[in-house]
């Protein structure tokens, strides 16, 4: 995801699912702390990070009818466990090593626990004497037998209420500070979104007022199985998935996985995705309740004005785009763009930051707020505190970045879709597959005031390439790879190669080869442009 401060892109909302975000935006961001809040000797600011599961922003998953402004907030990988691992470490997947949601794909694996998890940003918050609290979905394989069972508490956490496995609303187990706690299907006792809310409020009541706190709240909404709270089960009865943009458009010039769905979609697929779309909003209504209660609690304990609240999601989602019924894992805007709203000291209300922000930027931003020297952290991302609160920090946005995904498939054919061969997965409904082994891709995105280009290479037998100019084609309807000047493809390819192997500082230092630029003497030269934190230096080569 990337970040923009939050605000103005929000139009008036007609659904409660939007009110969580709107609540954050409309509350005045007070300036009383000023710079003091970002340095360690004053009482540091508190931080709350809310990470929903699969909440899109492009299709109205944050607010309905987004008509104002563009917001660029990206995950560097559009899948739960790799994205969450990036949020925790501030690293691209090729550096933290989490490829997918399985243990063999490194999700919450012993290797992850020994390595990247031991350096995740909560570890540093704990060393800075933050009181740390976690509740909700952590990583998809968390708590499983081969992932250390419920006894594994990642370092840095003082209060730990983590879901075992993937998102559920009822009938799940938690690790509560290392001990298993089983839950059934009683709304008042077990509904997970509300449980997360209630336990966070209790934590705030019992905290030590002398020390700052950090809360990471990770509700299951709006992930499947889309079980709404009883009071929200009839909400949004007339809502259907939006039919504009790339909805049910054929992916005729795209990777083969985009060419296999039936087009137009079947009636059963349409019914399925409309139902999913509506139920997703219903589950988000309980997240609205969470935000409202949390803000009220922070007010009542006189901490709101010294607390940063971040609201985001691990990945986006699609419902019918390019005739794919429901899922994520694709390189397109609907899957890689996520909500990001922030309020807190030094952030003016109702502003939108146009520069792109990534989910790997959350860790360095939070550490920056806490007064930690971010240059000492082993992160690929960069703080965007300067983007949100220029009065507190100087800094520049990055001109381009990486998105990468490792595709998954089953070894054998799906028994419910016998006509399909092995190597595919997520083949529902109607045997339309959303992932495959060779849905493995890496993209470079160039995004600034002059360009909005996306260039993607697939690791498949075709070495398939997709390229989009999102300034003229915001819905990515036309793959322009066969139209564009080869020199542009070359530049994008070189950027991609560098980013795919970048680590730490090299992910933030950009070398751009601009071939055959004519100087004033009308001779042809290559210009090597190095952009280092926004400072452009040029050499003739
Ligand atoms: Ca997710």
UniProtKB/TrEMBL annotation:
<dbReference type="GO" id="GO:0030203">
    <property type="term" value="P:glycosaminoglycan metabolic process"/>
</dbReference>
<dbReference type="Pfam" id="PF00884">
    <property type="entry name" value="Sulfatase"/>
</dbReference>
<keyword id="KW-0378">Hydrolase</keyword>
<dbReference type="GO" id="GO:0046872">
    <property type="term" value="F:metal ion binding"/>
</dbReference>
<feature type="signal peptide">
    <location>
        <begin position="1"/>
        <end position="37"/>
    </location>
</feature>
<keyword id="KW-0325">Glycoprotein</keyword>
<keyword id="KW-0458">Lysosome</keyword>
<dbReference type="GO" id="GO:0005764">
    <property type="term" value="C:lysosome"/>
</dbReference>
<feature type="domain" description="Sulfatase N-terminal">
    <location>
        <begin position="75"/>
        <end position="371"/>
    </location>
</feature>
<dbReference type="InterPro" id="IPR017850">
    <property type="entry name" value="Alkaline_phosphatase_core_sf"/>
</dbReference>
<keyword id="KW-0732">Signal</keyword>
<feature type="modified residue" description="3-oxoalanine (Cys)">
    <location>
        <position position="80"/>
    </location>
</feature>
<keyword id="KW-0479">Metal-binding</keyword>
<keyword id="KW-0106">Calcium</keyword>
<dbReference type="GO" id="GO:0005539">
    <property type="term" value="F:glycosaminoglycan binding"/>
</dbReference>
<dbReference type="InterPro" id="IPR000917">
    <property type="entry name" value="Sulfatase_N"/>
</dbReference>
<dbReference type="InterPro" id="IPR024607">
    <property type="entry name" value="Sulfatase_CS"/>
</dbReference>
<dbReference type="GO" id="GO:0008449">
    <property type="term" value="F:N-acetylglucosamine-6-sulfatase activity"/>
</dbReference>
<protein>
    <recommendedName>
        <fullName>N-acetylglucosamine-6-sulfatase</fullName>
        <ecNumber>3.1.6.14</ecNumber>
    </recommendedName>
</protein>
<dbReference type="InterPro" id="IPR012251">
    <property type="entry name" value="GlcNAc_6-SO4ase"/>
</dbReference>
<comment type="similarity">
    <text>Belongs to the sulfatase family.</text>
</comment>
């Amino acid at each position: 995801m990337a970040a923009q401060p939050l605000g103005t892109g929000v139009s008036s909302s007609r659904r409660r699912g939007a009110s969580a975000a709107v609540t954050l935006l409309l509350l005045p961001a007070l300036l009383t702390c000023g710079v003091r809040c970002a340095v360690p000797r004053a009482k540091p600011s508190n931080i709350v990070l809310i990470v929903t599961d699969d909440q899109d922003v492009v299709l109205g998953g944050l607010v309905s009818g987004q008509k104002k402004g563009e917001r660029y907030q990206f995950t560097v990988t559009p899948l739960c466990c790799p994205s969450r691992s990036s949020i925790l470490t501030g690293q691209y997947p090729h550096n933290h090593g989490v490829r997918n949601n399985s243990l063999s794909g490194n999700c919450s694996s012993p290797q992850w626990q020994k390595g990247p998890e031991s350096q995740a940003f909560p570890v540093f918050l704990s060393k800075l004497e933050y009181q740390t609290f976690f509740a909700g979905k952590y990583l998809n394989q968390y708590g499983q037998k081969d992932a250390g069972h419920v006894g594994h508490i990642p370092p840095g956490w003082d209060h730990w209420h983590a879901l075992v496995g993937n998102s559920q609303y009822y009938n799940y187990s938690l690790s509560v500070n290392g001990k298993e706690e089983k839950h059934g299907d009683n709304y008042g006792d077990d509904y997970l979104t509300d449980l997360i809310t209630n336990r966070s409020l209790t934590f705030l009541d019992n905290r030590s007022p002398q020390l700052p706190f950090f809360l990471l709240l990770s509700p299951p909404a709006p992930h499947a199985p889309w079980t709404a709270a009883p009071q929200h089960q009839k909400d949004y009865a007339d809502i259907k998935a939006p039919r504009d943009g790339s909805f049910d458009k054929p992916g005729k010039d795209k990777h083969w996985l985009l060419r296999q769905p039936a087009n137009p979609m079947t009636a059963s697929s349409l019914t399925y995705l409309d139902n999913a779309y509506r139920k997703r909003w219903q589950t988000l209504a309980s997240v609205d309740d969470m935000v409202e209660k949390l803000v009220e609690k922070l007010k009542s304990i006189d901490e709101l004005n010294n607390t940063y609240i971040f609201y985001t999601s691990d990945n986006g989602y699609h419902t019918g785009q390019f005739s794919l019924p429901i899922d994520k894992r694709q390189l397109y805007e609907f899957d890689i763009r996520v909500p990001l709203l922030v309020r807190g000291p030094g952030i003016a209300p109702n502003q939108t930051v146009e520069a792109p922000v990534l989910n790997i930027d959350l860790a360095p931003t939070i550490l920056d707020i806490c007064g930690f020297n971010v240059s000492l952290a082993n992160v690929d991302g960069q703080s965007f505190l300067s983007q949100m609160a220029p009065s507190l920090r100087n800094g520049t946005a990055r001109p381009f970045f990486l998105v990468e995904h490792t595709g998954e498939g089953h070894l054998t054919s799906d028994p419910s879709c016998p006509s399909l061969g092995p190597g595919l997965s997520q083949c529902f409904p109607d045997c339309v597959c959303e992932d495959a082994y060779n849905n493995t891709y890496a993209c470079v995105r160039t995004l600034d005031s002059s360009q909005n280009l996306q260039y993607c290479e697939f690791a498949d037998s075709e070495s398939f390439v997709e390229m989009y100019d999102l300034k003229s084609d915001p819905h990515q309807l036309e793959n322009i790879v066969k139209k564009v000047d080869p020199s542009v493809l070359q530049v994008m390819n070189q950027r991609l190669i560098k980013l795919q192997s970048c680590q730490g500082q090299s992910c933030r230092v950009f070398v751009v080869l601009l071939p055959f630029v004519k100087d004033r003497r009308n001779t042809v030269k290559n210009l090597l442009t190095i952009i280092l934190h926004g400072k452009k230096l040029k050499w003739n080569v």
